[in-house]
Write a structure and sequence with these properties.
By secondary structure, the protein is an alpha+beta fold. It is 28% helix and 19% strand. The chain has one helix at residues 2-19, and strands spanning 28-33, 38-43. Strand 1 (28-33) and strand 2 form a beta hairpin. It binds zinc ion.
Length: 64
């Protein structure tokens, strides 16, 4: 059930991004409590020192 719910949320996010409408969950982590039917958003700050997506990326390709 949760996999289906998360899949629907992901599909809705992609459609909003493609169509350029609404707000997205970019930079946010969504916590789902299915027992209480509550959703919570937590802001996730970008790590400026990240070797993949930081200011000076060192990893620029997939590695085996
Ligand atoms: Zn990163």
């Amino acid at each position: 059930m949760l996999a289906g719910l998360v899949g629907l949320l992901q599909a809705a996010e992609i459609l909003k991004i493609i169509l350029g409408i609404g707000g997205t969950l970019g930079g946010k982590l969504v916590l789902i409590n299915s027992l209480s039917a509550e959703f919570e958003h937590i802001e996730v700050l970008k790590d400026l020192n990240c070797p993949v997506c930081g200011e000076n990326p060192e990893v620029k390709a997939l590695l085996d």
